[in-house]
Amino acid sequence: MNKYLVKIFPFVVIHIIWYLLSYYVGVNLIPRPDMVWMRLFILLANGTIFLHAGFSLLRITVAIGFAIVIGVPLGVMAGANKKIDKWFSPIVYLLYPIPKIAFLPVFIVLFGLGDLSKIMLLFTVLVFQLVLAARDGMKQIPIEYHRVVNVLRLSKKDKLLKLYLPSVLPSLFNSLRIGIGISLAVLFFCENYATTYGIGYYIMSNWMMVNYVGMFAGILALSLLAAGLIMCVDLLENKYCKWLIYEKKHIV
Questions:
Q1: Can you give the pTM of this predicted structure?
Q2: What is the DSSP code string of the chain?
Q3: pLDDT of residue 112
Q4: Domains recognised in the chain with CATH numbers
Q5: What does the angle CA 190 – CA 122 – CA 141 come to, to the nearest 5 degrees?
Q6: Consecutive 10-residue runs of the chain (252 residues): their mean pLDDT?
Q7: CA atoms within 13 A on the CB side of 43
Q8: Which long-range contacts (CB under 8 A, 24 or more apart) does 236-240 make?
């Protein structure tokens, strides 16, 4: 019973605060939750929100895929080789802190007004985090583990699959959870330029038309999309990092 109460409690608290804000500010500015949920159900029924959410989901999942394919190998190499780390990490340190949204005009010039420029922007948000997560995960491998795999004379493939990847996966999943939140904030911004589909576009178009119920329905849809992506990361972590579940259960 406590397990289900823990899951329901945040939902209840958010809606109570939402109702109070709607009461004090007024439903014209902050619509009640029941009004927003009703609008969202209507948008789901007629397929409008699926269309916008589908475009947003496509952009962010493609960016995540490219970031994993490029960022994880670079991070593993930097963590495994001190020379690569010495030359490569300073470049990451210089580029990582820069607000990636500042690159939007550059990407529009290079890749056009379509989805590619938006995907590349999201890619830059994610890839540096994954590089650093993979590199730091490699550096946290105890030296004894390296000695064991050397004694066992494991091949490079076996080292990668049985030592390196299991060691960096927890850091990668944590980085992905953080990166998804930042990426959706950036996606919301860039979907307001040269596009007619996407949750960011839907929210802002309703805001400009002073349709606050529709605007909040879009915000709610964006929140559900983010929650769904993070839940997928949690499921993957539970599947491929089962030892973490064991450790959490036995924490005193």
A1: 0.87
A2: -HHHHHHHHHHHHHHHHHHHHHHHH-TTTS--HHHHHHHHHHHHHHTHHHHHHHHHHHHHHHHHHHHHHHHHHHHHHHHH-HHHHHHHHHHHHHHTTS-GGGGHHHHHHHH-SSHHHHHHHHHHHHHHHHHHHHHHHHHTS-HHHHHHHHHTT--HHHHIIIIIHHHHHHHHHHHHHHHHHHHHHHHHHHTTSS-S-SHHHHHHHHHHTT-HHHHHHHHHHHHHHHHHHHHHHHHHHHHH-HHHHHHHHT--
A3: 84
A4: 56-195+233-239 (1.10.3720.10)
A5: 155
A6: 72 90 89 94 92 93 95 91 89 87 84 88 93 91 80 79 85 92 89 86 92 94 93 90 63 50
A7: 24
A8: 236/173, 237/169, 237/170, 237/173, 240/169
Q: How many residues does the chain have?
A: 252
Give the C-alpha separation, 119 to 62, whole Å. 7
Cβ contacts of 111 within 8 Å, gap of 6 or more:
117, 120
What pLDDT does residue 27 have? 87
CB distance 88 to 145 below 8 Å: no
Note the pLDDT of residue 189.
87
Exposed/middle/buried for residue 160 (C-beta within 10 Å: 0-12, 13-18, 19+): middle
Say what the pLDDT of residue 150 is: 78
Q: How far is CA 58 from the centre of its chain?
A: 13
